[in-house]
Amino acid sequence: MARTSFDGFAFEDHRGALGETWNLHRVHDPGRGRGVDTDLEPKVLESTYLKARRGADATGDRTAASQFFVREMRYRRRLKRDAVGAGETAADRLRAAGGWVTNALFGLSCGYGERPLRTVVVSLLLVAGYGAVFAGLGAVTRPDASLVTVVLENLTFSLQSFVSLIFGGVPRGATLPVRLLASSEGFLGGFLIALFVFALTRSVQR
């Protein structure tokens, strides 16, 4: 399998064998009566799924290419993680750690550009988290307001901050720490909105 190039291979004719996991390195074990993963190094697996992705792209199978790309990136992340402890110098380990963290965040935030719904979930969690912090800092307070009103107003303030980089400036009338937090949320919001558009475009093209 490690030397397979997948040139011209029609993955769409083998969807049943690939199953839901799109696992190319699983072999059938008669003793266990099920498939088991082969003991291959992450570098070999990354290369295998890279070649599978290119083969799927060449045949126009966007769904297979998408699935193989996700697996390729996962094994690349393992390579980066292993390189953190294997680097000869501190600079090598730092670069590997940076690559590992970047890869992990890319996967978490949008499934490597293949899962737009994941970006929506992360965005909602970010708005809720910032809303809780704003409530703790008293960003939006009224003496006579109920707890529900305070929560909703701080969530609204958080949502306004989230979209501020796209639709306008950070809401005014707040303390410096609150404005700094709102600015940071605006930066992350702009990034996540762009990431969602990117992932959505890729999914539509499939």
Mind explaining what this structure looks like?
With 206 residues, the chain is mainly α. Helix content is 67%, strand content 4%. It is built from eight helices and two strands; from the N terminus they run H-E-E-H-H-H-H-H-H-H. Strands 1-2 form a two-stranded antiparallel sheet. The model is unreliable at 32-36 (pLDDT under 50).
**Whole-angstrom Rg:** 23 Å
Instruction: List the strand order in the largest sheet.
Output: 1-2
Distance between the termini: 26 Å
Q: Helix content range of the residues, please?
A: 55-70%
Q: What kind of sheet is the major sheet?
A: 2 strands, antiparallel
What is the overall pLDDT average?
A: 82
> Helix count?
8
Give the strand content. Answer: under 5%
Show unreliable segments.
32-36
Envelope shape: elongated
- Which structural class fits the helix and strand makeup? mainly alpha
User: How many beta-strand runs?
Assistant: 2
Order of helices and strands: HEEHHHHHHH
Secondary-structure map with pairings?
Layout lengths: L14 H4 L7 E4 L4 E4 L4 H17 L3 H25 L3 H21 L5 H22 L9 H16 L1 H4 L8 H30 L1
